[in-house]
Amino acid sequence: IKDFQNDHKEILEIMEKLFDKAKELRNFSNFNEAEKLVGQMELMAKKLMEAENHNVRQENTLFPVLEKKGIEQPPAIMWHEHTEMKEQKKELLKLFSQKFEIGYETFVSKILELSRQLLERFLSHTQKEENILYVTALKVINDEEWREIKAECDSLGYVDYSL
């Protein structure tokens, strides 16, 4: 659980920085002026996609153990939200690849909206994981199951969140 919580902090930090930088884009009038900023943002978007590893670890380790214990609703909701956020991250990356086709103003507008939506959804999502999913998991999963979950998470690997 601590590893998952640490992931949340790292991912949230990247999302907040991305949204802040998206707001900064309004200080420029074209891609040439904002080139450095756009490059930094694209790296952040790619790092957010790498962070899907967090969801994969949960979906392949924690969720199945809970489901075996008859706790199906919270994992199902979390899985659905993971899928929605992954689609938003893909859309974010797509904006960077299409930036010159859509133009600076449209890019800024879309990146602002998408980064805001993603941040808000992630905040809501992590609150549910912290207050429902993890609390439930701590009550029903035994020590041996936790060791197995940890070993499987280790085999799936972790993300280096540094930018």
Please tell me about this protein's structure.
This protein is mostly helical and 163 residues long. Helices cover 83% and strands 0% of the residues. It is elongated, with a radius of gyration of 18 Å.
Descriptors:
mainly alpha; single chain; 163 residues; 83% helix
- How far from one another are the termini? 24 Å
The average pLDDT value, as a whole number, equals 97
> Sheet bearing the most strands, described?
none
Structural class: mainly alpha
Principal-axes geometry comes out as elongated
Rg calculated over all Cα atoms: 18 Å
Helix count, DSSP H or I runs of 4 or more residues: 7
Short structural description:
By secondary structure, the protein is mainly α.
Spell out the blueprint of helices and strands.
Blueprint: H1 2-24, H2 35-50, H3 52-68, H4 73-97, H5 99-102, H6 104-140, H7 143-156
Helix pairs in contact: 1-2, 1-6, 2-4, 3-4, 3-7, 4-6
